[in-house]
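Module 6 notes. Inverse folding takes a fixed backbone as the condition and produces residue identities as the prediction. Think of it as a translation problem where the source language is geometry and the target language is the twenty amino acids. Below is one complete input and output pair. Work through it position by position during the lab.
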């Protein structure tokens, strides 16, 4: 295993979506005390660390990704004293703590944006954001044709202090999330301060939201395809994302983290949400003096096909691992349809989605590098696809009126125990109403039931994590592809550990030389059938 200094290179991190993890107060919203109460569960699962979704003071227009104060805790989730207790408890259990930091935009309730609204055009307060005059004789048209990731124009017009219609400000997400102007050095200095505030409280690093963002083209010109971001729900507008200046920010942040590394010899991690078109562009973010890691989403988005999986894995190993970093694999997060449902087409009733999700999990844990697990994936939770319109909270739904690609369905609070909602999500307060309703069938996926059933998703993840920690062939390193029948993907880790996945399309069951160490599904001696993955020591 790796040294304390390089702990992140093959770490398995569990994403805690705080408001849906565990509620300690009975108000229906998860909180930091609930996370602290759940740490023994995560220790038993075997993860190396947790990433906490934003818990900062916020009006919650985008569930905390609209930050009003970067250096405090929203009373909805607790306070700084509770945060310190959580960090201390995690440290005693050997669990790292990463915070979600949001440097691309803030809340429209942030004091600096409120100051900008009260200030005149051309003021220093407005220079912290992207304010611009509108087009047309009366300035009634947006400054350019860009569209928001959440739908609709990326600009909103303000009313000036004298009551007249005035300038416009840029928001690549919701209007309540104005984008910072990172060409203003005041913004960089402020985020230096914010990083140090949390590092001084003992955290182990940051997950960086929209890490390919921050800088926009300095002239803010029209886009050739203005609706691309909203249509694809990805950061593809080349004028708004992936500008070259962003790399200077990550070099600065890396140097700050290294100051803290020097205090105890344990690296402080920067892992970025980087959405760029190719693995080669992705690799530019994880050069030795920039981010330690960046999420590799291509595996998540790959179709269930062995050739597609082999292609994205090979490209990642060549371009990203070639920088000296390690690949950061993900199959799901708080913005994506849950894996069981995503893989379930076209025959979910047959359990196809669950079989594929189990196989994909075992494959991911066998790959070289780090892995991130979104809460509830270890329970095999499906997407909740039938939430009524009147409970939906995703700003995408509010902006577009469409349920396409909304994110509430993967954010429904976790079921912990019992036969009816709130399923132990609010321990001791059975009358509590979770902030999103839990379906009745969540009883089948409750944590207590999963722990009692050795065939459950939970035991597959736990056993995989235990083997990953115990076997020197796993974790950081390389892989070598093996020849395999059509419909099967197989590779070795080290000289003798084999991982193979039958994608369910092989004309005959895949041969398995010996008894597997761990299998995601049916694996009789000598064969690997169905949508199943297995690890074994090659004889």
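Target side of the pair, the amino acids:
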């Amino acid at each position: 295993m790796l040294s304390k200094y390089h702990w992140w290179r093959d770490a398995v991190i569990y994403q805690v979506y705080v408001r849906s993890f565990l509620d300690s107060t009975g108000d229906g919203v998860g909180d930091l005390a609930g996370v602290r109460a759940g740490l023994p569960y995560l220790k038993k699962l075997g993860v190396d660390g947790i990433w906490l979704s934003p818990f900062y003071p916020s009006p919650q227009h985008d569930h905390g990704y609209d930050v009003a104060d970067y250096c405090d805790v929203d009373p909805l989730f607790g306070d700084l004293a509770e945060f310190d207790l959580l960090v201390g408890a995690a440290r005693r259990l050997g669990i790292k703590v990463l915070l979600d930091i949001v440097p691309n935009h803030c809340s429209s309730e942030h004091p600096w944006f409120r100051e900008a609204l009260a200030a005149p055009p051309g003021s220093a307060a407005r220079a912290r954001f992207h304010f611009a005059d509108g087009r047309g004789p009366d300035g009634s048209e947006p400054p350019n044709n860009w569209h928001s990731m959440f739908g609709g124009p990326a600009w909103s017009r303000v009313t000036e202090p004298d009551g007249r219609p005035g300038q416009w400000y840029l928001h690549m997400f919701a209007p309540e999330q104005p984008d910072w102007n990172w060409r203003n050095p005041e913004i960089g200095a402020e985020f230096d301060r914010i990083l140090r505030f949390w590092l001084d409280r003992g955290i182990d690093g940051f997950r960086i939201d929209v890490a390919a963002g921050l800088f926009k083209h300095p002239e803010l010109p029209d886009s050739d395809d203005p609706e691309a971001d909203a249509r694809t729900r990805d950061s593809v507008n080349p004028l708004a994302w992936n500008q070259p200046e962003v790399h200077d920010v990550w070099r600065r942040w890396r140097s700050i983290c290294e100051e803290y590394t020097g205090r105890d010899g344990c690296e402080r991690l920067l892992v970025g949400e980087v959405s760029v078109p190719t693995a080669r562009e992705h690799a530019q973010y994880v050069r030795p003096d920039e981010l330690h890691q960046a999420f590799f989403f291509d595996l998540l988005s790959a179709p269930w096909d062995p050739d597609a999986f082999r292609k994205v894995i090979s490209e990642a190993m060549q371009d990203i691992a070639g920088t000296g970093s390690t690949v950061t694999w993900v199959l799901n997060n708080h913005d994506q349809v849950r894996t069981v449902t995503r893989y379930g087409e076209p025959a979910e009733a047959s359990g196809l989605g669950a079989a594929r999700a189990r196989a994909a999990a075992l494959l991911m844990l066998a790959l070289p590098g780090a892995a991130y697990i979104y809460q509830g994936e270890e329970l095999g939770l499906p997407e909740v696809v039938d939430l009524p319109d009147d409970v939906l909270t995703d700003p995408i739904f509010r902006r577009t009126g469409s349920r396409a690609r909304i994110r509430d369905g993967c954010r429904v609070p976790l079921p912990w125990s019992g036969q009816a909602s709130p399923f132990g999500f609010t321990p001791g307060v059975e009358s509590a109403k979770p902030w999103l309703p839990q379906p009745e069938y969540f009883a089948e996926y409750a944590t207590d039931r999963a722990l009692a059933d050795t065939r459950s998703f939970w035991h597959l993840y736990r056993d995989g994590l235990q083997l990953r920690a115990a076997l020197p062939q796993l974790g950081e390193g390389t892989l070598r592809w093996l020849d395999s029948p059509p419909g099967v993907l197989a590779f070795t880790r080290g000289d003798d550990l084999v991982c193979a996945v039958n994608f369910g399309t092989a004309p005959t069951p895949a041969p398995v030389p010996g008894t597997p160490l761990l299998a995601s599904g049916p694996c009789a001696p000598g064969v690997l059938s169905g949508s199943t993955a297995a690890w074994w020591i090659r004889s």
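Reference fact for the lab report: The two ends are 24 Å apart (CA to CA).
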